[in-house]
Amino acid sequence: MSDRFISRGFEGKRRQQPATAGRVPPGQYLTDDFPVLSAGPTPRMPLDQWTFSVEGLVREPVSWSWAEFSQLPVREYTADIHCVTKWSKLDTRWEGVSVDTLIEAIDLDPRAMYVTAFCDGGYTTNLPLPDVLNNQAFVAYRYAGQPLAPEHGGPARLVVPHLYFWKSAKWVRGLRLMEVDKPGFWESLGYNNRGDPWKEQRYWGD
Amino acid sequence: MDDLEIDPNWDLMLDGNAAAGLFQEMFAVEMTACPTACAWCGQQGQIGRLLAFAHAPGIVLRCPNCMNVMMRIVETNETIYFEASGVAYLAFERSAW
Amino acid sequence: MKQPISWQIATVTGIHPETPRVKTITLTLPAWLPHRPGQHYDLRLTAPDGYQAQRSYSIASEPERIGEIDLTIERLEDGEVSTYLHDVVQVGDQVEVRGPIGGYFVWEKDLGGPLLLIAGGSGVVPLMAMIRHRFVAKSKTPTKLLYSSRSPEDVIYASELDSLGMAGDGFEVIHTFTRSQPANWRGYARRIDQQMLRETLTPIASVPLAYVCGPTRLVESVADGLVQIGVPPERIRTERFGPTGGTL
Fold this sequence. Notes:
Number of domains of chain C: 2
Number of helices of chain C: 5
Largest sheet of chain A: 6 strands, mixed
Order of helices and strands of chain C: EEEEEHEEHEHEHEHE
Number of strands of chain C: 11
Mean pLDDT of chain C: 94
Structural class of chain C: alpha/beta
Number of strands of chain A: 11
CATH architecture of chain A: Alpha-Beta Complex
Radius of gyration of chain A: 18 Å
CATH class of chain A: Alpha Beta
CATH superfamily of the largest domain in chain C: Nucleotide-binding domain of ferredoxin-NADP reductase (FNR) module
Number of domains of chain A: 1
CATH topology of the largest domain in chain C: Rossmann fold
Strand content of chain C: 25-35%
Helix content of chain C: 10-25%
CATH class of the largest domain in chain C: Alpha Beta
Radius of gyration of chain C: 18 Å
CATH superfamily of chain A: Oxidoreductase, molybdopterin-binding domain
Largest sheet of chain C: 6 strands, antiparallel
CATH topology of chain A: Sulfite Oxidase, Chain A, domain 2
Low-confidence stretches of chain C: none
Distance between the termini of chain C: 26 Å
Oligomer: heterotrimer
Shape of chain C: globular
Number of helices of chain A: 2
Structural class of chain A: mainly beta
């Protein structure tokens, strides 16, 4: 590192503590808060108008109302989450529907290789289909034992803990199955297409 | 004077002034006073009046009239990425306000 | 004018408490440039491992003070930078800054008036640069500051504003307190609303230039209120601060 000015006595956010080494990816710090990040204001979608769809490269698109979605098998998840803005939060507790359950409801076209999650407010994120199967991803509507707060993505958000948390799309309304990968909101402007925090894949070219 | 629901994402919102330093870094000119127009709805105004969501992995500037995205800025260590597909035009005035 | 900006290392030459949570830091800048009142500087901290944090702070001082600037900073409980600036920084320390930045939310004497300045909390800081410049430049532009604070202890620059208000040069301060008021207070004791704006505006002879600065909700309700009572939108400039007062 070249001769850089250092601010006397400044340490910034706490870095990895020994007790949690191995659970905190490179370049991250631990937080006890749950920071609120968003590209826009909190969308307000009344539950009686909310739907969740699986569409795109499927034989028949499927859609659930809130009442129907609430009847789907729900599981509890405990996960560490890692935001590309460098905070990590361990042992977060969620309840939601596995993406496997949602994909099982449709006839998957063998050409479907990618998924775009689309959301109220216009946000999108893209993932390879294998990254959301095998219980690696879920659509959560409860967090820490309570209904998911609107500012954190309620009524429901996608959660994909093994990737940077911008992939865990808030206010998710559906998954679109695609043959061609289409970079989403952040992936189209500098953020890594996949976003593996353990390989520190934050930006293009990482 | 209003009964807006509590929304932390709204409370954290800033405006185009928050991007002033980035604009100056990218373009070497002051841009918050630049007149601009929204490509979505046509609303005109200065960049300083655009709504900014900076509590995010980047800065998102939205039209105060229709809330669509006008510009986005992402900073990495080496690069500033900038897109303005929601901008109809920018005007650089030769004189001050 | 092409003005690439670059970082410079400033030296802290003064620290002055304003209120229990607010301090002013005076910085001497090797590459000082006269700023336009309302502009800000970016300030950047670097930890030994290279981690950096950056914030923007409005310049509180007038450009007529050559070679140095005042930054007035509110200490935010979970603020990474503000707690450092309050708790660690001492006279003689150095900080990296970049600026001056801005061009929309600025006022200088030649732009005329009358001026209506409206502040919520630490939103008063950039307006104070305008007020100080106005005084030093001997402008007689009629100027009103409508300043919303939670309580009397939270008023930044309280005694200076009182003195300026008695200078007889057309400057007036109107306070409103939203949580607690001074003893025997007969002034406003509520959030700024349309009625208050109307009463503040009525004595002003012609359409003012309005500058509104503070938390986002105050800025939008005041800006909307001003439009409702007839101030043309192009005469209103706004700058939104974060919920507890600082930019970004």
